[in-house]
């Protein structure tokens, strides 16, 4: 009985209904948290004593960066499940996660460049962290492009799963790049094993926004999965029924 939930993942109608139930709660919560978090971070936190108000971009930059890294693990785990247990839903989740992760990584690079100009005096520096984030972007795009390049979609899914698993070696490199090599990036300000170096008045809205972007990521993943399920099951009775109900 403990593994019943796992077997249900093989049922497209069940996954579609369950994801819809989750979205009814998660989507409004994610939107509300992002709006409140942006207001909190922009309007109610004090300016930094060195960077002034330019530091406030961390309330976008840091959350999308954190979730872009975690999202790669989501894609890789889905790829592993697809390889081992041949679950169609896991394969779909892997493919849906790729473009979402690519957009988050691009936003991380873009907001980092905007932040870098007033902080470092330049939009772009090829330091270890930025370079490894660019590699992450190409890995996400690679999974997406690789699937489209194959006519045999079964073979394409296997190739994408292998690429996503191999690419996980880049995630620890991104995390530890500021410790292993010289970097303009400062060491981690948020620490779980010691005292954080960021003031609580700035830390709490940042943590709030990280949670909010995680929720938004989950919503985007579920929405993409639902669309992919309907497209792949378009000829089945349950999918036709859902489409008719929407119309």
The low-pLDDT segments are none
Structural class determined from secondary elements: mainly alpha
Helical content (DSSP H or I, runs of 4+): over 70%
Q: What's the pLDDT, averaged over the residues?
A: 92
Instruction: State the major sheet.
Output: none
Q: Which value, in Å, is the CA radius of gyration?
A: 20 Å
What's the helix count? 9
- Topology as a string of helices (H) and strands (E): HHHHHHHHH
Span between termini? 38 Å
Give a verbal description of the structure.
- By secondary structure, the chain is mostly helical.
- It has one domain (22-185, 197-246).
- The chain has 9 helices and no strands.
- Helix 4 (88-120) runs antiparallel to helix 5 (128-149).
- The protein is globular.
- The mean pLDDT is 92.
What topology does this entry show?
Elements: H1 4-8, H2 12-43, H3 58-85, H4 88-120, H5 128-149, H6 153-166, H7 170-180, H8 200-232, H9 237-246
Short description:
The protein is built from nine helices and no strands. By secondary structure, it is mainly α.
What attributes characterize this protein structure?
247 residues, mainly alpha, 9 helices, globular
